[in-house]
Amino acid sequence: QAMLRVVGDLSGKTVYKDWDATIFASLPGQKPKPILRTIGFNAGRLIKQADGSHHWVTREVSYYVDLQTGKIIETWQNPLNGKTVDVVQVANDPVSSKFPKLEAGKFNPFAAFAKFDVRGEVSWMRWDVPLQYPNELKPATNPEESTGETYIASEHFIWFSNTADLQSDTATSTPAHYAWFRTGPWLPWMKMGMTPGQLIYSGNGRKYSSFDELSPQLRAYTLKHFPKYADAPTSFYQPNETSWSYYRKLKEAGTLPGPGDKPAKK
Fold it and tell me: Whole-prediction pTM value?
């Protein structure tokens, strides 16, 4: 229950979690180099099931930002290969999961990945998410965009909340801030192919109870280009979308951004 209150709101209301992260390029034998920022948010809703479990239904956007100006960009000169490329923003719908009802003495599927540390006035929950699955973009048909047959990445969160809020018996949602770290392959639109190396994301964010609390730049860009992402889904559906499956669909449909194009709508 404490974990669910940190992640969402037991009442079923939409909660928003934003982020602001610096993206580093890590090449073999070289010091990681900051190349971009990304800002975005997730809109999520907890839906309680008859058996006591919960569906966590969400969608999210993330936009790439120039390191110097702080503005969302549509094109980018890749300093790693010298190519000027069209940016494909993140627009993933859905990004959903299921939380089973946990009972004392029975198997806890989260025990290896999520852990509370209660100390004094502020406590935290660490949540690690290792990822591995077949790459949506195969090297044979996507030589510039694919980093290999298998997608390998990891997401790492540390959530911080007031201990009193975590232990509340009446609150349906716990205010929280968090640190976020990610390792992952080159993004398809960077056109890095199978160049050795990876991306490292270092960011932070917090939880909000309304869309209006997000930054003006996030709100304005979302309402203009991806308006449905201003609220969470109302039901559970799959499969989950990723930046790689989204890119593949745009490419197959012939709607990838090009010179002078606006961001692809979703």
Answer: 0.94
